[in-house]
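Slack export, channel: ligand-projects

TW: morning all. Re-posting the request from yesterday since it got buried. We need the structure predicted with the small molecule present, not the apo form. The ligand is zinc ion; the SMILES is in the block with the sequence. No rush, but it would help planning for next week.
GE: picking it up
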Amino acid sequence: MNILTLLEKRRHTALEISRLIGIKEKEVYQHLPHIEKSVKGRGRRLNMTPYYCISCGFKFKDRKRFYPPGRCPLCREERISEAFFGIM
Ligand SMILES: [Zn+2]
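GE: finished. pasting the full token output, ligand included:
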């Protein structure tokens, strides 16, 4: 099982992917840009649900990077939601 096959079936968080594949969560974020390129070549895309701030609800809608933001630009809190990744 690889990340691509996993995400074609359904959406997962990076933590879920790391557990299912048996790699570190940090490594998942390193793989995602390569997966994005590879699916683009096949006319599909890697979709990410926006991260959001758990304290104030701010959504990181325009974020292009896959790894989680460090803190909220509005309230400065560091409690940020997980994002779900899937191949559409
Ligand atoms: Zn916030």
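GE: first-pass observations. The mean pLDDT is 96. The chain has three helices and three strands.
TW: perfect, thank you
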